[in-house]
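Example 3.2
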Amino acid sequence: MVDDHPMIIEGYQNTLLATKKDHQELRIDIAHDCDMANQLIKKSSNCEPYNVCFFDISLPASKDGLITSGEDLAKIARTYLPEAKVVMLTMFNESFRVHNIIKELNPEGLLIKSDLTSSELAEAFQRILSRPPYYSSTVNKFLNTSLTSDIYLDDINRKILHLLSQGVKTKNLKDYIGLSLSGIEKRKKHLKLLFNIEDGKDESLLNEARSKGFL
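Structure, written as tokens:
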């Protein structure tokens, strides 16, 4: 379980331990940041692979800046723990963001924290073990409603937004991303089209990305 708020993790842990089935044995490892989670995933793959991984979306980035969110950790888990069920938890309740998470990760569980109660977490966990996927009510509502716009961001576009939000200048992005400056400029132009940025400003792009839960 990965979340940067210890009290939230404690609540999840206590709920699952209190509601597990008699035949189930739960051993839970906890991480509060991307670096610790990355280490635990890779360590687990070499000895006793995790069955289920819970990732909060918003996490402190790794020290090297290469892992910026729970989404990045989920992709690492898919590589190192191919049999593990991935559960994403997020405060974001924007339809665009939810669709992007499902399209990018196809998680076995997607839970909006504002929907979550102890009983729903317990039900979700058992469903994810036996009959995934499990999506919380807000997610299902979004999936049942057609989108007027389809905003999909791949890894590189998300990293561009993240780095810009951290104050990295466009001319320096090539030092962090394996693209030429012209390639980065093309992606920025595409991002501004996706988010309908009319004034062309990076600040407006970042504000719109934040409002839709991409930062």
